[in-house]
């Protein structure tokens, strides 16, 4: 068993509890005095209002102090204080803890302000959207104009080539390109291609030729049945446009990528002029 001298000082917690209880008792006695009670009976009197406000302020201050104490020490003093306030000012504690009454005029003003803010937000969003759409339209127009200018420059450059206006297909061996045209106006291309290897046996012949045969699923009987899809022949010795690897030289034919070979097969007809230079 530990020894505790009778004259030992109480702990800080105990001292705060005693102080809180004393404050609660004093406040209760003050609020229960006849002068305050009579003032509380007339709720419209300024004195009653001032004492009621003061009572709530004291109650709040003591509650803050009580928060630092154990409940078993703080609760009795706070209960005494609440009983005293309720005795002097019935309903005051409940009224103070209730949410403040809403002012209809203030509520209406707040609603109108919120509506104005929302309207402004929507207007700003609409303006931003319109600006974005205008910028997108401007970019699209600039891209269209640039593409048109590029197409016109390309068409002008192609018109300056040796390929005659009456040719339906043109082949530029040095430029590794070919295109389709009608009355001198380009209708497809230019697209990349590869031609025959530069030797007397494999070089693609130059000059004016005419489409004489079309075979969609063609094979080369001369070169081990090699596939020649979408073949469009324009010479009498087996030279044709057909699908093939444009990175490889041929035995004289014009290799085209798949999509281009399909277009040439669909657009070129028997008798159309092909010009090679």
Notes on the protein architecture:
- There is one protein chain.
- The protein is of the alpha+beta class.
- It folds into 3 domains: 52-98; 120-160; 169-276, L,D-transpeptidase catalytic domain-like (Beta Barrel).
- Helix content is 50%, strand content 18%.
- It contains 7 helices and 9 strands; from the N terminus they run ααααααββββββββαβ.
- It has helices at residues 12-31, 34-41, 46-66, 71-88, 92-97, 104-159, 258-267, and strands at residues 169-172, 177-182, 185-192, 207-210, 213-220, 226-233, 240-243, 254-256, 273-276.
- A 5-stranded mixed sheet has the order 3-2-1-9-4, with helices on both faces. It has a 4-stranded mixed sheet with strand order 5-6-7-8.
- α1 packs antiparallel against α3.
- The protein is rod-shaped.
- 22% of the residues are buried.
Please outline the helices and strands.
Blueprint: H1 12-31, H2 34-41, H3 46-66, H4 71-88, H5 92-97, H6 104-159, E1 169-172, E2 177-182, E3 185-192, E4 207-210, E5 213-220, E6 226-233, E7 240-243, E8 254-256, H7 258-267, E9 273-276
Parallel strand pairs: 1-9, 7-8
Antiparallel strand pairs: 1-2, 2-3, 4-9, 5-6, 6-7
Helix pairs in contact: 1-3, 1-4, 2-3, 3-4
Biased composition (Basic and acidic residues): 115-125, 135-144
Domain L,D-TPase catalytic: 167-277
GO molecular function: peptidoglycan L,D-transpeptidase activity; transferase activity
